[in-house]
Amino acid sequence: MAEKRTIRFGIIGCGLMGREFAVASARWPALLETKARPEIVAICDLNESLFGWYRQNFPSIRQFTTKYHELLANQDVEIVYCAVPHNLHEQFYMDILKAGKHLLGEKPFGIDAAANERILAAIDAHPHLFVRCSSEFPFFPGGHQVHKYILENPWGRIIEVHSGYLHSSDLNFQKPINWKRMIEFNGEYGCLSDLGMHAMHIPLRVRWIPRRVYASLSKIVTERPDGKGSTAPCVTWDNGTITCEVEHPTDGYTFPMTLKTYRISPGETDTWYIEVIGTKFSAKFSTKFPKTLKTMHYVDGDTQEWRHEDVGYGSAYKTITGPIFEFGFTDAILQMWAALVEEFVDRPAHMPFGCITPEETRLQHKILAAALTSGKTHQVVEIG
User: Fold this and answer.
1) Alpha carbon of 269 to those of 7, 102, 266: distances in Å?
2) Is domain 5-133 given the CATH code 3.90.550.10 in the classification?
């Protein structure tokens, strides 16, 4: 067996998602057919107290710095994973590209549509660089299977689509405010930009692009403890429901699609879901029941019954894990990184499922900007 190519990564932003990537790289032997493997050689964060965990667990890392330009000057770094607050996306992503580094960035890929356009212009100015955006949940086997169904188009006529990402981490009103509740760091979108790409990943991939939207946006918590003995205003949106009118890309008819992004959803610790309801066939998957895929075939005159199938560990990229076992979030992270590495190395014409493209981040921002306008004006907004 040929030795796998090693791709050298740098991480900017060593918090939650930086650590998740690091752990995924350590689990790489679980993947059976990848042509390359990642190696983390440099990390950067303003908080040096995070470095100890990386030092202890990843001897491949040779550069620890609080200055991201020092990491970008490191000739050993090929690709940068950048996980920083939204207000930093534009400057950091553009500097990464100018330094000649490939990039995996975090959603929403710019604090607003204008920032996203400037990032995409920088990508166009460096066409030799490989750039993708992070989103993990569609790599769950059930989500991947729904995507395959969409490509097969068994629905008859689609009646409606629902996709969303719900959690309840902000249900505790005494939780101190953080940057995601501050407009100067998170942007005016609020929950829409923080959670929206999870809900949009599959719809955008299959070109279910809304023609018009109506959004209902909620500010449920008006203030939170500021961590200094006082309170601070919460000015970003907590929950958002976007009702869309979508034209089927091949069959021409229109159908409604609902996208939900909730930070305050009682009973939902962390739930991603997608549902497609059709006249001949329907499918539902939710990470709340991670090994269960629901499908319904309609035959004239027969009883309408949902079929519940345990999909097990049927991942897009093969692993050592047996198919009878249950898939989880860390597995989705590993699958996302497998998709990134495979596409970076081989650029295959047909992939099981890939990471978000820069153009898909542009479409996301068009939808989010329209939803923001609709939420303010209470009007339906056309998307050009």
Assistant:
1) 35, 34, 8
2) no
297 close to 280: Cβ distance less than 8 angstroms: yes
Question: Which band of pLDDT confidence, cut at 50, 70 and 90, is reported for residue 203?
Answer: very high
Predicted pLDDT at 40: 98
pLDDT at 1: 52
Interval 156-180 mean pLDDT: 94
For the chain, list the strands marked E by DSSP.
Answer: 5-12, 36-44, 63-65, 79-82, 102-105, 131-133, 158-166, 210-218, 223-225, 231-233, 239-247, 254-262, 271-278, 281-286, 292-297, 307-310, 381-382
Tokens encoding 22 = 């690091």
Task: Tell me the pTM.
Answer: 0.94
The answer to whether the CB of 144 falls within 8 A of the CB of 239 is no
Beta strands in 126-209, from DSSP E residues, in sequence order? 131-133, 158-166
More confidently predicted of 303 and 277: 277
Average pLDDT over every residue of 354-358 = 96
Give CATH for domain 140-323+357-382.
Answer: 3.30.360.10
Which pair of tokens denotes residue 194? 């923080």
**Mind giving me the DSSP string for 363-378?**
HHHHHHHHHHHHHHHT
Q: Largest Cα–Cα distance of the chain, in whole Å? A: 68
Domain-wise residue ranges, the chain: 5-133, 140-323+357-382
Can you tell me which residue has the tokens 């079929």? 307
